[in-house]
């Protein structure tokens, strides 16, 4: 699964070695550092958690969308009369019925709510229907007649440069030419490679669904599993032609998210239908609609040339990176910036020349998926490191150690790495961890074959490979993004309530907020309020920002309440609040003179405070790809052990050993789950997950044709070391946890398959023909 909330049951966890705690140190039972369980765990386990697909309202209507069967076509006419005349149909809307802006986009406003003149990708929305029964709605949508002039689709991103413009904004979304060092420098040893990364889908484990309810004031409320409710509200309001205060987004239970969880393309038609009919309208998307409608990871073409000296030290890296954005821009600019900035990986490279492009095609739209940009280049630069090691006759791990980045080094963007960067330490940890034992060559162990117990493989054809990879990601937004979050902490009758619009997507924010208040105020019972847009904005749930920015806002608000609580006591006893401490619900002074409980000190009062957290600013990359574009960085090392049937090309991942730079462990149990989930998602990208298209048409848009890793595919995941070197500019010193193992794991699996087969393995996911060993002459 790709959700953080549910890890593969086939994993075996190794207790991580953390620098912050010894093996005999007892972990706290509450507050920071405790393995506090999620507040919603029981409800999710019992099936009572309120997901959007479970919502209901009096007088409910059902919505259905009509989508294009073509990836590229001109719309000649749309006839909705047959659909509108069907019994039970209450409304049919097309592009002509949008009262406000006809297009939307979280980053670039370029995607139409409904296609008007042109269809630019398979599955693009044409119209929406509201009816009194879901089957009626679907039948009515199918009854809409659209006359198309089918056009030749542009599906090769390399041909998009010379193709006719697919969009009024053109085919080129962004070009970043990074220039760093001397272009005339040449290394004594040169290796080249061409790499292709497939289209991974975020595959949310719950149905994408929503409910729109009209309001008496002419506005509308949207109930949906949004991960960025304020942005979604603003986009919807613009399309509805309404002021923002007349549109409210209420976040329902989110069943895990590894990207933009709910595409506005589902929400905006719902609101239009609710406003048109005056009734609540619900949409529960099928899995096929999810594949057709939401965004995916950018398919990427990468060309690399690495220069090194004879000792294996990198001299120069040259690369060309081409992201296929699909029909619309979405997060392509940000993804390209990450890809270009991290194109050399966590290595010291004195000279780098990277060309990056993101282009529009008639392929399915690409957008935010965890580790965007960084994952694609990691697979490529680590493939280059393996090639370089082979050419030099060096151990792959030793080559990486000789070039490992550390604090104080420069990125190719010219930015100094000021945060902890224990890259070499992480690699040492996974390299030195004991390897798993080899399986016995006997019939009873046939389940260990890459094909499983029903596989056709022979034990004699199985080869074991070990591969290494180092990865890095940025935290928070980049290139001048204004990262800010607001939180309120309120305490009354011994109970604390946190109000913050940070959406819980499985990353553990609500648990962290409870731990922060417990730690700061010594109050055991802490509740986190449901999220809606009546609260101040907290921003999107991406790049670990809610741990940093929203968690920082909660901490500041809690500390302000702490001061309110302690000041009267300090004044009474003639001391400063700094001389008082709160622990286990008790307030004590440094000298023991004062000792009371938090409840007694509250004396029935209600205390509250609101605070903001805003990290230090960043700047856009300039015309040479230079600039301090990132707030912080996180690093990971992974060692993959795989068994490959070199005759059939089938691959079984035996073990993944992970060492990660986490800053500070805030919740050991949740951190381990996050890492395991990230590794499993990375294995999916390496071996099975690829949303295949043929001339722009999505083939098999379902979970039969799109193979997610299951518990049977999950290996033993050994978290061998967690480096707790706190980032001094981050609240609590913690770093983003789940994106960097997603980025690193596919490259490690590919490296291990290379080691087992001797094949270059330059494409993800790895195809069987790429894992068949070349016969020896």
Automatic annotation (TrEMBL):
SUPFAM superfamilies for this protein: CO dehydrogenase molybdoprotein N-domain-like (SSF54665), Molybdenum cofactor-binding domain (SSF56003)
Occurrences of domain Aldehyde oxidase/xanthine dehydrogenase a/b hammerhead (ranges): 46-152
Q: Which residues form a coiled coil?
A: none
| UniProt cross-references to InterPro entries, sorted A to Z | Ald_Oxase/Xan_DH_a/b (IPR000674), Ald_Oxase/Xan_DH_a/b_sf (IPR036856), Ald_Oxase/xanthine_DH-like (IPR016208), AldOxase/xan_DH_MoCoBD1 (IPR008274), AldOxase/xan_DH_MoCoBD2 (IPR046867), AldOxase/xan_DH_Mopterin-bd_sf (IPR037165)
List where the protein spans the membrane. none
Domain of life (superkingdom)? Bacteria
Q: Where is this region: Disordered?
A: 1-41
The UniProt regions of compositional bias labelled Low complexity, in chain numbering, are: 1-15
Q: PANTHER family, alphabetically?
A: XANTHINE DEHYDROGENASE (PTHR11908), XANTHINE DEHYDROGENASE SUBUNIT D-RELATED (PTHR11908:SF157)
This chain belongs to the protein called Xanthine dehydrogenase family protein molybdopterin-binding subunit
């Amino acid at each position: 699964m790709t959700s953080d909330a549910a890890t593969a049951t086939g994993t075996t966890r190794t207790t991580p070695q953390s620098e912050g705690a010894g093996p005999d140190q007892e972990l706290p039972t509450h507050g920071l550092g405790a393995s506090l369980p999620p507040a919603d765990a029981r409800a999710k386990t019992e099936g009572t958690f309120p997901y959007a697909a479970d919502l209901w309202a009096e007088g409910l209507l059902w919505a259905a969308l009509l989508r294009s069967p073509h990836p590229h076509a001109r719309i000649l006419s749309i006839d909705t009369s047959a659909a509108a005349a069907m019994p039970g149909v209450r409304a049919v809307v097309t592009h002509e019925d949008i009262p406000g802006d006809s297009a939307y986009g979280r980053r670039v406003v370029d995607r139409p709510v409904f296609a008007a003149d042109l269809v630019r990708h398979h599955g693009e929305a044409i119209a929406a229907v509201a009816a009194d029964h879901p089957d009626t709605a679907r039948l009515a949508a199918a009854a809409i007649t659209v006359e198309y002039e089918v056009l030749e689709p542009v599906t090769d991103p390399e041909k998009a440069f010379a193709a006719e413009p697919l969009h009024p904004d053109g085919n080129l979304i962004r070009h970043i030419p990074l220039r760093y060092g001397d272009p005339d420098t040449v290394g004594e040893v040169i290796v080249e490679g061409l790499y292709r990364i497939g289209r991974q889908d975020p595959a949310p484990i719950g149905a994408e669904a929503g409910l729109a309810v009209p309001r008496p004031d002419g506005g509308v409320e949207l109930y949906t599993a949004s991960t960025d409710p304020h942005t979604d509200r603003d986009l919807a309001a613009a399309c509805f032609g309404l002021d923002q205060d007349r549109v409210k987004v209420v976040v329902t239970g989110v069943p895990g998210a590894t990207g933009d969880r709910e595409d506005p393309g589902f929400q905006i038609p719902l609101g239009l239908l609710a406003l048109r009919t005056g009734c609540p309208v619900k949409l529960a998307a099928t899995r096929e609609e999810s594949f057709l409608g939401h965004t995916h990871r950018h398919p990427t073409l990468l060309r690399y040339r690495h220069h090194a000296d004879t000792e294996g030290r990198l001299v120069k890296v040259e690369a060309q990176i081409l992201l296929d954005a699909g029909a619309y821009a979405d997060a392509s600019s940000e993804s390209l910036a990450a890809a270009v900035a991290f194109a050399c990986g966590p290595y010291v490279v004195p000279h780098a020349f990277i060309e990056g492009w993101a282009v529009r095609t008639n392929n399915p739209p690409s957008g935010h998926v965890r580790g965007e940009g960084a994952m694609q280049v990691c697979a490529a630069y680590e493939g280059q490191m393996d090639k370089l090691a082979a050419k030099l006759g060096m151990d792959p791990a030793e080559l990486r150690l000789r070039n490992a980045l550390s604090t104080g080094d420069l990125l190719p963007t010219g930015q100094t790495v000021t945060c902890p960067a224990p890259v070499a330490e992480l690699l040492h940890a996974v390299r030195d961890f004991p390897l798993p034992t080899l399986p016995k060559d006997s019939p009873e162990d046939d389940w260990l074959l890459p094909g499983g117990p029903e596989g056709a493989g022979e034990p004699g054809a199985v080869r074991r490979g070990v591969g290494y990879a180092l990865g890095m990601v940025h935290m928070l937004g980049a290139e001048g993004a204004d990262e800010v979050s607001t939180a309120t902490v309120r305490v009354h009758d011994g109970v604390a309530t946190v109000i913050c619009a940070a959406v819980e997507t499985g990353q553990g924010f609500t648990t962290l907020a409870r731990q922060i208040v417990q730690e700061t105020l010594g109050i055991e019972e802490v509740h986190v309020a449901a999220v809606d847009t009546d609260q101040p904005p907290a921003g999107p749930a991406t790049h670990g920002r809610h741990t940093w920015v929203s968690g920082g806002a909660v901490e500041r608000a809690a500390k302000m309440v702490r001061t309110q609580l302690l000041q009267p006591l300090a004044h009474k006893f003639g001391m400063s609040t700094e001389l008082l401490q709160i622990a286990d619900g008790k307030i004590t002074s440094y000298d023991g003179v004062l000792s009371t409980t938090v409840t007694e000190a509250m004396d029935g009062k209600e205390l509250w405070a609101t605070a903001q957290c805003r990290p230090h600013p960043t700047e856009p990359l300039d015309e040479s790809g230079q600039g301090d574009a990132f707030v912080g960085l996180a690093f990971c090392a992974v060692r993959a052990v795989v068994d490959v049937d070199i005759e059939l090309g089938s691959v079984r991942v035996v073990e993944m050993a992970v060492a990660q730079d986490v800053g500070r462990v805030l919740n050991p149990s949740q951190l381990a789950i996050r890492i395991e989930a990230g590794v499993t998602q990375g294995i999916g990208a390496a071996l099975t997950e690829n949303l295949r298209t043929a001339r722009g048409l999505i083939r098999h848009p379902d979970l039969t044709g799109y193979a997610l890793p299951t518990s049977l595919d999950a290996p033993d995941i050994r978290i061998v070391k967690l480096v707790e070197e706190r980032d001094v500019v981050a609240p609590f010193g913690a770093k983003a946890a789940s994106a960097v193992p997603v980025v690193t794991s596919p490259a490690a699996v590919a490296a291990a398959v290379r080691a087992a087969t001797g094949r270059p393995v330059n494409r993800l996911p790895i195809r069987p023909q790429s894992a068949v060993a070349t016969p020896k002459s």
